[in-house]
Amino acid sequence: MAASLIVRHRVADFDAWKKVFDSMFEIRKAHGWTQATVYRDAQDPNMVTIVNRMKDLDGAKRYGGSKELKDGMAKAGVLGAPEILMLDQADDRAY
Q1: Domain extent for 73
Q2: C-alpha–C-alpha distance, residues 82 and 71, integer Å
Q3: Which of 20, 42, 81, 93 is paired with 70 by a 20 to 30 Å CA distance?
Q4: Residues 53, 87: contact at Cβ < 8 Å?
Q5: Domain holding 36: CATH number?
Q6: 70: in domain
Q7: Alpha helices, DSSP H, located in the chain
Q8: Whole-angstrom distance, CA of residue 58 vs CA of residue 45
Q9: Is the whole-model pTM more than 0.90?
C-alpha cells in the first residue's frame, strides 16, 4: 500500500508560498510523490496543511533531508519548524 506524509506549517504569505510549492513538483515526483492536496486553515489562511501521497516513506525521508527542500522552504517563507506525520496506509475505503 501507499504512504502519506502530512505536513502543517505557517507561511508568511500563502500566494508566495504556493508559487514555490508548485515549482517543486518535479523534485517531489522524483522522490516518489503521487499526489499532494493543499489545505488552508479556515481561521488562518497562512496556516497550511499538505497531505502528500507517495509510493513509500523512503522517498519522503530522502526528500525531507534534501537541500532542495530546505532551500525551497526558506524561499517560500515557511515560518518555524513544520509539524510532520509519516503514515503507512493500513486501509482505504470510499463511501
Answers
A1: 3-82
A2: 14
A3: 42
A4: no
A5: 3.30.70.100
A6: yes
A7: 14-23, 25-30, 57-64, 67-76
A8: 31
A9: no
For residue 75, being part of any structural domain is answered with yes
CB 1 within 8 Å of CB 37: no
Contact partners, residue 71, CB within 8 Å, separation at least 6: none
Measured CA to CA, the distance from residue 27 to residue 70 in angstroms comes to: 12
Q: Residue 45 contacts by C-beta under 8 Å, 6 or more apart in sequence? A: 14
- Lowest-pLDDT range, 37-46, 56-65, 68-77, 78-87? 56-65
DSSP secondary structure string, 3-14? EEEEEEEEES-H
Residues 20, 76: contact at Cβ < 8 Å? yes
